[in-house]
Structure formats: C-alpha cells, structure tokens
Amino acid sequence: MSISPAKTDFKKLGSTSEYSYSFGCAPLDIALGFNGFRSGKVYEIRGPESRGKSTLGLEFVFAFGEYWQKLNQPFRIKWIETESAFDATRTIWMRPDIGPMIEVDEADTVEQAHTIMREFLKECEENGEKGIIVWDTLAAASTDAQQSSGDQYAGGQSEQARYLRWMFKDLVPSLGKVGAPLILPNQTYLGRAKMAHLPPPVVSYGGGAIRYYSSVRVDIQESLKPMNEITPNGAETEVGIITTNKILKNKITGVKLPFKLWIRNEEGIDKLETTIGFLKENEILKASGAWKKMPGPDGKELSWRSTKEIKDKIELTDPTIKDWMDYQVYNWYSKSSPLVKLRIIEKVWEYEKQFFGEKRTELSEREIQAGNALEQHAKKQLEREEQKELEPAKKKRGKKAKSEGVIELA
Fold it and tell me: Could you say which DSSP state residue 222 is in?
C-alpha cells in the first residue's frame, strides 16, 4: 500500500554540511552528494595521468564560484600547484567570469602547502569570505626532511602520510567555518601485492591520512573510448575522452553510485553530453542512427541529431528541456532503492511540481515512517549540538560562582 505524497513533507535530510554546491549536471550531483558537493568536506579525485582529474577539480571551483556569485557574496579560490602545470589560458577560456579569480600558489613540500592553506582559511574567516581549496597534486610533494636531506626517499611515503594526518586534523575544523571544500586531485600508482598470485593494488599517495579524512574518494578509471563527433564533411573527429568512474568512499550519502563523464579537450566536462549519455545507457533515451529520441513533458517526442542541435534548442528556444532531462535522472535514481529515494525525494517533487503542477512520486508507509524518524533524529542532533555550545559557558559561570563562595543550584 502506498500513501499520497501530498499527506507528508520532508525537510532536506542527511547532511551536516551548511552548503551544497551543484555542478549543474544531475549524474555528477547525485553521485557526489545527491545535490552536488558539500562545504567543509575533503574530496580525493584519484586516478592515472591524463584522465581528467584536474579538469574535474576545475569543475568543483566553477560550481563553488557560481553559487556565491548568484548570491552576490564575497568568495576566494585557492589553487595550490605542485606540478607547476596550472593552465591559466584553458581555465579562463572555460569560465572567463571565474577563471581569472583563481589565486595560484606553488608548493614543493606538504609543509608549504599546509602553511598556504592554513593562512588562506584564516584570512577568509577574518574577512567574512567563503573559500575553496584545490591542491594539485599532493602526489608530487615531498616533505621538508626529504628536501633538506637531498634524498627523495628519506622517510618514505610513511613520513608524508604522518604529516598529512596531522595537517588534516589541523585544517578540517576551519573548512566548515568558511564553507570551504578541500579538493585533492591525486595520481595513483601500483602498490605491492600482498600475495604473489594477486595483482598489485592501485593506490594513491597520502596513505591512511587520505582514507581517514576524505569524505568522498572518487576513482577516475581508464577512459572507455574517445569522445568523437561527426564533422560537417562526414569525418569522425576525436574531441575528448569518456571516463568511467567509481566511488570508493562516500561518508556523505553512504551510497556508492558509479558515473561516467564526457570530457572535451578544451571545454572541460560536457555536462549535457554526460546527462544524455546517462539517459541513453539507462534506456530512457533511444538512439536510432544519428537520431536521439525521448518522451517530452507534454507527451510529445523530443528528437535531435547532434549535441549542438539540442544545445541550441535549450539555449534559444526552451531551457526547460535541460530540467526535464535532469528530472529523468533523479526519477531513475529514486526508483533504484528506498534509501536513495528518501534522500532525493525533495528534488524529485520539485521537478514534478514544475512539469506537472503536483507531486507524483508516492512514498510507501515504511518510507514515510523512516523519513519522519530521520527528521526527528536530525532535530535531536541539532538540539544536542546547541547544548554542547552552551556547556562551556555554564561551566565557566559555575567556576566563577564557586570562586566567589556562591553555590549554584541546577
């Protein structure tokens, strides 16, 4: 038996982060946090070289900047470069409104990067600014001890990991204060197999420090195939890569949802192509030769032959087509499991009100019961946090009263 969603309502559940930054790409938003990535969290983007790690790092930056630009609030972007490979020309070409705002610093050692990040967060807090940090990449950073000894292997990877554990413990409390996520593109390498007959494991630099302190770890795996387009003369041209990606850890949603990315060489992640790829893979969209077709919100068929054609239609004729595609992604995930459904139901209902004027997705009795219980849990958790903030003041008043010979009654 199911109950009409009109009989109940839920607040947003499951996040202790103050802000959620949307990429504007439903498959990516859902995979990393159900509605984008979160403030105060550490994200590791790991994978082999030339697989789009830095490009994805830039997309975090652009989403963060766009969020605060819309609210007309001051913000800063810190990009720490250890490989000395930051491409300012491509970055500004991708987003000329946000790209020039990126502050680039170089750090040869993890200690230098730590100092840069700590000072940046301190300045943001003092000036009332929001901030985001990308460190690309800690895999290329040694420690001061390795630099001074002249031996790059002095202390080994364990030395770097020990320092990083202390660094994260120092920085993480400050991230939440300024709404800052910390993004870590991190190159992988082959470790040592525990048994001779086992293949060597793929690991990333940073050891236990990254595993313990990162809220989300994304594994960008090998590209599936090149991203190709048909030119006007009928030739097929490679314009980028398509990657398949796996969530190794997700402490924000608890759900590890795989996703694919269509990445253009000069433009970064093609969000519309990534969404279309998801719809095609899950048979929401049908491809017949050069034509792509899917049902529209008015019951009529949406059809197009090229990504440029549908992009022009969205930008010049009907921007709600993109919203309709995003709704199809959210609707598909809402049917994948009750846990996912509960966490994205507000977004699903938001789209349904936009296109149908009412909530259509229903919740079962158990889903409503779980939702109400989660809401009560969140309320009690908030009350406990507020009580903790009052405790130091109460203890301080008690000590002062005792020193004056006064006994306070509870």
Answer: E
Spatial separation of the C-alpha atoms in residues 211 and 200, rounded to whole Å: 18
Whether 121 and 105 have beta carbons less than 8 Å apart is answered as: no
pLDDT digits (tens, 9 = 90+) for 373-407: 888 887 887 788 778 777 765 555 555 555 554 43
Q: CA 382 to CA 249: how far, in whole Å? A: 25
Closest CA to 67 of 8, 28, 24: 24
Strands 2-3 and 286-288 turn out to be: unpaired
Q: CA nearest 219: which of 405, 395, 17, 51?
A: 51
Give the count of beta carbons closer than 10 Å to the beta carbon of residue 371: 20
pLDDT bucket at 409, cuts 50 / 70 / 90 = very low
Is the C-alpha dihedral spanning 272, 277, 283, 289 positive or negative? positive
Strands 130-136 and 182-190, by their bridges, are parallel
In angstroms, the CA 160 to CA 139 distance is: 10
Distance set, CA 344 to CA 22, 152, 170, 247, 347 (Å)? 14, 47, 33, 18, 5
Contact status, residue 24 vs residue 252, Cβ threshold 8 Å: no
What single DSSP character describes residue 314?
I
- Geometric angle at alpha carbon 321, from 320 and 326, rounded to 5°: 95
